[in-house]
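Troubleshooting log. The previous structure file for this entry was overwritten by mistake, so regenerating from the original sequence record. Sequence copied from the archived sheet and checked twice against the printout by T.R.
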Amino acid sequence: MHRSGPISTSPHDRDLPDMDIIHAMTAFRIFADEAQERSQLASDALKYACQNFTMHLSQAPKPWDGTLQHTFKSFWNDHLVSWLERQWCLKGLRSCLVILSEGQKLAKEHLQVPA
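Regenerated output below.
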């Protein structure tokens, strides 16, 4: 990080929080509050899909057809962070970890992951 002006070496100054960090934390809190509100306004169908997609995919006939394969790959590669945000706001971290663990099993089974 670049600072303008003299750098103080006073022990007292080291105890003060960096204003950039305070601003970043404030911006993140606002973002998180807005995400929480958006998640609560989601349709019941979207809430259900977020909570249960791995269960339904694990019960899909094997081998997966090309459409399901492509849809899952697109979701896993391009939309997982959005899902994580919404699920975390709806059900918390523990729920995310359980679902991600099941999703990872599906990804290993159905997606070509480069070594």
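The mean pLDDT is 83. Archived copy saved in two places this time.
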